[in-house]
Amino acid sequence: MNLEAQVAGTETLSVLETAALLRELTAGLIEVTDFDAALVQLVGLAQAAVAGVAWCGFTALRAGEPAGVAASDPALAGLDDLSDGPDTPAMSAIHRREMIIAEDLGRESRWPGWTARARQAGVRGVISAPVDVDEQVIGAINLYASTPDALTTRHQLTAMLLAEHAGLLLAAVRGRERRAAEATERDAALLGEGVVGQAIGVIMTQRGCPAPEALEVLRSAATSLDIPLREVAERLVATVARPREG
């Protein structure tokens, strides 16, 4: 869909509005390391920042299977998940790789089951825009209106910007999530590894602290001395094992 052509000569977002929206999204997600938490942050920020949008949701798939869902209003979360089947605006956007728009659900014949549930929940219009996260995860961001014909060309442009920026931010979250998991695995291995494990035990005894904190003490010492972690551990264990004079 050539959205640029559609908005030519019509209402558009101002530079300041666009910058403010993207800044809020970035600030809200820049340090998040949990993907599900990031989705919750995203829909809450989007709903609050975009005028005329009553609710916002997100549908995520990993390898074609449900991977996450979030809604700015928990009462509408069922509209974003796939528990009642894939016949939804979000899945249409994901499968067709283009924005899906329904200005008035009262005139909508697509997704009949979903539309009935949406109207019962108070939804009267929807825009779903596909979001590419990474090679494993794709999704759609869903903007909902509480009155018919409230979603304009302006909202379509906003949805496009949200989808593009959200994809980049969520990809970064996924990267941080993977690195955190890898670090946890490495720490678990270190806690039981030979001389490093012994050194951690020494620090735990001396300081009365748990193993993760002892490991951080060991890491801090290695950084300060600019020597490998294993060498610091060997020195500590050797020092403790050395018999005291006198």
UniProtKB/TrEMBL annotation:
Please report the stretch or stretches of sequence annotated as the ANTAR domain: 176-237
Could you confirm whether the keyword 4Fe-4S appears in this record? no
User: A single Gene Ontology molecular function, please?
Assistant: RNA binding
SMART domains for the chain: ANTAR
Query: What Pfam families does the database record attribute to this sequence?
Result: ANTAR, GAF_2
Question: Which key words tag this protein in UniProt?
Answer: Transcription, Transcription regulation
Tell me the protein's name.
Antitermination regulator
Which domain of life does the UniProt lineage start with?
Answer: Bacteria
InterPro entries hit by this protein: ANTAR (IPR005561), GAF (IPR003018), GAF-like_dom_sf (IPR029016), GAF_ANTAR (IPR012074), WH-like_DNA-bd_sf (IPR036388)
